[in-house]
TrEMBL record:
Places the protein is found: Nucleus
Keyword field contains Zinc-finger: yes
Cytoplasm as UniProt keyword: no
Protein name: Zinc finger protein 2 homolog
GO cellular component, one term: nucleus
UniProt-listed SMART domains: ZnF_C2H2
Gene3D superfamilies registered for this protein in UniProt: Classic Zinc Finger
SUPFAM superfamilies, A to Z: beta-beta-alpha zinc fingers
Alphabetized GO MF terms: DNA binding; DNA-binding transcription factor activity, RNA polymerase II-specific; identical protein binding; zinc ion binding
Naturally occurring in which organism (per UniProt): Acanthochromis polyacanthus (spiny chromis)
């Protein structure tokens, strides 16, 4: 069996889809039958392959066996480490065929493409609102559930979105990254800069 890795021989063919394999088809056939014999003892989710169950279990255990040799950051799956490495190399191999913009990971390209198609495939089961990205739907769902997983390490206040926590932290750090191009006044939130800008637009009218 091992020698087939070198020879490329794939003697086992699937009678359903015609795809060929080096080893017997037991695992592959489950994609046709829907059988999922490997179940998670923690949450009950089932998988067709034992390797997929192993990867899933790391969500519960927190195990991250794949480490970046450059910055030391660890990941639960090799594919996530591979995607991460592009932040050190600046490599962006995935390009948009419409506008030419490039991305380091194919998932970022997929998310970007929705800005050209206006497609919003992720819908909220509670209110029906649709979103172009899964992460946007996840953030939105917390409005219904009341979940606030992002906590401030300084005052303990919790928030539903990481971006809101980031904005909140500026209350403690005093950071004001949004500056008025007219008078130079700075603000800790973009919304406050926009509100301030109306002072100048009113002066011109």
């Amino acid at each position: 069996v091992h020698l087939r890795c070198h020879t490329g021989e794939k003697p086992y063919s699937c009678g359903t889809c015609g795809k060929s394999f080096r080893t017997i088809l037991t695992d592959h056939m489950r994609c046709h039958t829907g059988e999922k014999p490997y179940s998670c003892g923690t949450c009950g989710k089932s998988f067709t392959l034992r390797t997929n169950l192993t990867k899933h279990m790391r969500r519960h255990t927190g195990e991250k066996p794949y480490s970046c040799g450059t910055c030391g950051k660890s990941f639960s799956q090799r594919i996530h480490l591979t995607a991460h490495m592009t932040c050190h190399t600046s490599e962006k191999p995935y390009s948009c065929g419409t506008c030419g913009k490039s991305f380091s990971h194919w998932t970022h390209l997929t998310a970007h493409m929705t800005c050209h198609t206006s497609e919003k495939p992720y819908s909220c089961g509670t209110c029906g609102k649709s979103f172009s990205r899964w992460t946007y739907l996840t953030d939105h769902m917390r409005r219904h559930t009341g979940e606030k997983p992002y906590s401030c390490g300084t005052c303990g206040k919790s928030f539903s979105q990481r971006t809101i926590l980031t904005a909140h932290m500026r209350c403690h750090t005093g950071e004001k990254p949004y500056s008025c191009g007219t008078c130079g006044k700075s603000f800790n939130r973009r919304s406050r800069l926009k509100a301030h800008m109306r002072i100048h637009t009113a002066e011109k009218s």
